[in-house]
Amino acid sequence: MLSQRGFVRVELARWDDRLVVVKRLSGFSPEATRRLEREADVARKLDHENIVALLATMDGNLVYAYAPGMNLAQALERGPLPVTRSLKILRDILRALDHAHALGVIHCDVKPSNVLIRGERALLNDFGFAKDLALASITGDQQLLGTPNYMAPEQFLGVRTDYRSDLYAAGAVLHHMLTGAPPYGNQVLRYLTGDDSLVLEPLPREAAWLTPVIGRALMRDPEGRFSSAREMLDAVLAVPAAA
Predict the structure, then answer these.
(1) Distance CA 54, CA 66 (A)
(2) Mean pLDDT over all residues of the chain?
(3) Residue of 41, 9, 1, 39 lying closest to 27 (CA atoms)
(4) Which is catalytic among the residues 92, 98, 109, 166?
(5) Which of 6, 131, 170, 213 sits between 20 and 30 A of 243, alpha carbons compared?
(6) Inter-residue contact 220 to 157 (CB < 8 Å)
(7) Does 109 participate in catalysis according to the annotation?
(8) Domains along the chain?
(9) Model's pTM, two decimal places?
(10) Spatial separation of the C-alpha atoms in residues 201 and 150, rounded to whole Å
(11) Other residues' Cβ atoms within 10 Å of the Cβ of residue 24
(12) Does the pLDDT at position 30 exceed 80?
């Protein structure tokens, strides 16, 4: 078993003579069943080199491609990443989000443990909390879903219909990669509940040129953020690391 979250178990298995990752229910839960079915509906729409592919659904189980390597959370246990490596990972995350957003899908849980590192490529994983704007909400869809350290303020308040929430999360992941800690650390709930007196930890000197990018991505008001993953990606690509 690779992981267990509530009633959902993730296991490594062999299918059609290849290693795959299988996501299945480990008990009976109507809510978990609906969420797994919704995840399958969402994942079928996505086809991108920076998103872990859904290969099949069988008897309610989801069969995903196996991406050997480590996730970003594991990589960050060793401390901050070099600027160049951080930017490569961010670019892959934003490319994945650009694809998903174009199809009406908001990930809603972009965080290091949902980013897989496979060689020089990063893959966005786990659309279990995703919001598909083309599909009706399911029971419990307005409950608090996500991880506070990477959660946009509006998402913390229950709003899950804004693509820019994912851009906030991408900015938070970039901040973590560069500083070794997510924005606001153990004070994040103070920020999410409206305390604007908290100050972000400054970036290392070699990454200081990215301060405006992270500052815009982490704006409390979504209107102040980048308007799309493509715009955020273009902003990063436009500024040389030597700036």
Answers:
(1) 10
(2) 91
(3) 9
(4) 109
(5) 170
(6) no
(7) yes
(8) 3-65 (3.30.200.20), 70-238 (1.10.510.10)
(9) 0.92
(10) 15
(11) 17
(12) yes
